[in-house]
Specification:
The chain is α/β, with parallel strands linked by helices. It folds into 2 domains: 2-87, no CATH class; 117-347, Rossmann fold (3-Layer(aba) Sandwich), CATH 3.40.50.720. Helix content is 48%, strand content 13%. An 8-stranded mixed β-sheet has the order 3-2-1-4-5-6-7-8, sandwiched between helices. It is elongated and about 80 Å long. Bound molecules: zinc ion. Residues 279-280, 282-283, 351, 354, 356-357 line the site of zinc ion.
Length: 361
């Protein structure tokens, strides 16, 4: 009785799941439908079970079912554990800067200018970063899309962390209404290009940081040369068109993409790492809102410190990816709700037939 119920429900669930995948139905809807059908079919089973509860055969069947469930749960947990282990500790490949022949013996100090070791002392003594991690940061080349809300804290902390080369792309100018949250800019910079204002501030923070400012909006022509030349990309732009473009080229070129987004009181962050086989941005957001009309900061508003929280978390992920420290947020999304001081983590799924990272791509 119980086994026949479980077996028939497994078949029904597999069929419904397959139909849901074909129709690109959300995971939650598929689970709800399977749950409803399973619940309805369970009613006669429970009634029958109540009648034969005391029989030895029923108890044996129930015990077998419990053992089966425990085995399935253990197998699922084991698979998740193995998957999380695989996703851990895969530092991005940082293209090493060529050193003079006489400096072939790797001495961390050889890369650093006078005073830099003291500047980065708190990193160098930090477990999991240390001298090798700081050296990797120094040799890293990072591209930041957008010098706005998310880009501001991201650029400040990339510079302070000691990332060797930072490239910035933005075609906007600093406006008074930006200063409520875009902390890299100042009143003196109002009316100037954001990339110029940001580059100047970065040089004030860390003169050892090489800043390359691109006064432009990323497009099909500029995306490939820009992204192919860096080790990883931080995307803090404010429109879906650019987000899709960045995702497409990061996926094609195998570059890790740290993506952040904001909406009023809520921020989210994910790490899309094609080399680790994670889902891509398009898997999670298959279609842009009609006409790219997602509410913007200008129309919906945004809490002043929210970009600071999310942009700083983006740099924490960047530092982990570059140095190999800890466990990056690969294949997951972290959502921070500032209004209720809550955080949630969601495991992301590969999109069926994703036009960017799917098999046909
Ligand atoms: Zn995808």
């Amino acid at each position: 009785m119980l086994f026949s119920y479980v077996f028939s429900m497994a078949v029904i669930a597999a069929i419904l799941w397959g139909i849901g995948v074909l129709m690109n139905a959300p995971l939650r809807h598929r689970l709800i439908l399977i749950g409803i059908i399973g619940g309805i079919r369970l009613v006669p089973v429970v009634i029958e079970a109540a009648q034969v509860w005391r029989t030895e055969a029923f108890r044996r069947e129930l015990l077998g079912l419990v053992v089966l469930c425990v085995c399935v749960v253990l197998a699922v947990l084991y698979a998740r554990w193995v998957r999380s282990l695989k996703a851990q500790r895969q530092p991005v490949k940082v293209e090493t800067v060529e050193e003079p022949a006489q400096a072939a013996a790797p001495r961390p100090a050889s890369l650093f200018a006078e005073g830099e070791l003291e500047r980065y002392a708190r990193h160098i003594v930090l477990h999991d970063i240390g001298g090798p991690g700081q050296k990797a940061l120094k040799q890293a080349r990072v591209l930041v899309i957008g010098a706005g809300g998310l880009g501001s804290p991201a650029l400040l902390y990339l510079a302070a962390s000691g990332v060797g080369t930072i490239e910035i792309v933005d075609d906007d100018v600093v406006e008074l209404s930006n200063l409520q949250r875009q902390v890299i800019h100042s009143e003196a910079g109002e009316g100037t290009l954001k990339v110029a204002s940001a580059a100047e501030r970065i040089r004030q923070i860390n003169s050892h940081c090489n800043v390359i400012a691109h006064d432009m909006r990323l497009d099909d022509i500029s995306a490939e040369p820009l992204i192919s030349g860096v080790d990883l990309v931080l995307d803090g732009c404010d429109n879906f068109k650019t987000r899709y473009l960045v995702n497409e080229y990061c996926t094609r070129l195998g570059k890790p993409l740290i993506s952040g987004a904001l909406s009023q009181w809520e921020g989210q962050i994910s790490v899309f790492d094609p080399a680790s086989g994670t889902p891509c941005y398009r898997c999670v957001f298959p279609e842009a809102p009609a006409g790219d009309n997602a509410p913007t900061c200008a129309t919906a508003g945004v809490l002043s410190p929210l970009p600071g929280v999310v942009g700083s978390m983006m740099v924490a992920e960047a530092v982990k990816l570059i140095t190999g420290a800890g466990q990056a947020l690969r294949g997951e999304m972290l959502i921070y709700d500032a209004k209720y001081a809550e955080t949630r983590r969601i495991r992301l799924q590969k999109g069926y037939n994703c036009p960017v990272c799917g098999d046909q791509g």
